[in-house]
Amino acid sequence: MTTALITGSTAGIGAAFARRLAADGHNLVLVARDIERLRDQATELHDRHGIEAEVLTADLATDGGIESVEKRLSDRRAPVDLLVNNAGFGNKGRFLEVPVADELTMLKVHCEAVLRLTSVAVTGMTARGRGGVVNVASVAAFVPRGTYGASKAWVVQFTQGVARDLADSGVRLMALCPGLVRTEFHERAGMGVDDIPDWMWLDADKLVTAALADLARGKTVSVPDPRYKALMGAVKLAPRGLLGGITSKTGRKYGPR
Ligand SMILES: NC(=O)c1ccc[n+]([C@@H]2O[C@H](COP(=O)([O-])OP(=O)(O)OC[C@H]3O[C@@H](n4cnc5c(N)ncnc54)[C@H](OP(=O)(O)O)[C@@H]3O)[C@@H](O)[C@H]2O)c1
């Protein structure tokens, strides 16, 4: 039996990872801020699948939160075999409408936490000669999309670079780049999504199945789903100006502050 640590496990994509990995018989370390939700999730997964599910309350926008997860990842008596850096969020508004402090918080959660947790996790994994890290980025990494897209582009570049550096270590790293997924993400960010057509929405459970298959295949970047593979192919050919006009608007109708 192996152990997976998932950040942002209580909702959306992280919860889908937790369900799937528990069903496959992995023990879990569940990380998020809401202790009640974490406890309920751990109880449910334990009762349903008979796995051990620890809970770790941590706000990855703080040094203390990141440190507590680093500490858990470096515990040699209870090694973590798979790290899923999934916690993330969107800010409400376009550039200049979002306070710089909130942009920095995003960089802390999306980039600094991912860097620090990956670093500690792969230190143990390389010593053991096996392990995996999935860093949840986004297709926004490949298109003009403000600080959010830039932070996810960092996740992709970082993951590909580390995967290359550790190629012979037995440790696999993969950046997961989903398209739009029905989760709590858009509501939390105050984004109106009425103008997004149904065909663009992905199911979190199917996304996770495809992601884990890509990890097993040794991919370092995963864009699950043929619709988004085709879209990303078109993105490579589209003029950046035109692309920016479309991608900076999509899903960006914000409600009142
Ligand atoms: N949904 C999409 O369309 C989409 C598309 C591409 C990529 N993504 C990426 O997928 C990842 C997961 O997003 P999602 O759509 O599943 O969002 P979600 O449904 O809103 O879930 C976010 C999870 O992250 C946790 N979280 C948020 N901020 C945190 C913090 N500061 N510290 C610790 N945990 C935190 C939340 O729990 P607590 O509030 O209890 O902390 C929750 O468990 C994100 O990195 C997002 O950028 C999403």
Index terms:
257 residues, alpha/beta, Rossmann fold, 7-stranded parallel beta sheet, 9 strands, 15% strand, globular, binds NADP nicotinamide-adenine-dinucleotide phosphate, oxidoreductase activity
What is the topological layout?
Layout: E1 3-7, H1 12-23, E2 27-32, H2 35-49, E3 53-57, H3 63-73, E4 82-85, H4 100-128, E5 131-136, H5 146-165, E6 171-176, H6 185-188, E7 191-192, H7 204-217, E8 221-222, H8 226-237, H9 240-247, E9 253-254
Parallel strand pairs: 1-2, 1-4, 2-3, 4-5, 5-6, 6-8
Antiparallel strand pairs: 7-9
The chain binds NADP nicotinamide-adenine-dinucleotide phosphate.
Radius of gyration: 18 Å
Main beta sheet: 7 strands, parallel
CATH class: Alpha Beta
Give the bound compounds. NADP nicotinamide-adenine-dinucleotide phosphate
Biggest sheet: strands side by side, in what order? 3-2-1-4-5-6-8
Round the mean pLDDT to the nearest integer and report it.
94
Intertermini distance: 47 Å
Structural class per helix/strand content? Answer: alpha/beta
Q: Based on the coordinates given, report the CATH architecture.
A: 3-Layer(aba) Sandwich
Which sequence of SSEs, written as H and E, runs from N to C? EHEHEHEHEHEHEHEHHE
Tally of strands: 9
Oligomer: single chain
Which stretches of 5+ consecutive residues score pLDDT under 50? none
User: Helix fraction?
Assistant: 40-55%
Fourth-level CATH superfamily: NAD(P)-binding Rossmann-like Domain
Protein name: SDR family NAD(P)-dependent oxidoreductase
InterPro entries: NAD(P)-bd_dom_sf, SDR_fam
GO molecular function, one term: oxidoreductase activity
Family: Belongs to the short-chain dehydrogenases/reductases (SDR) family.
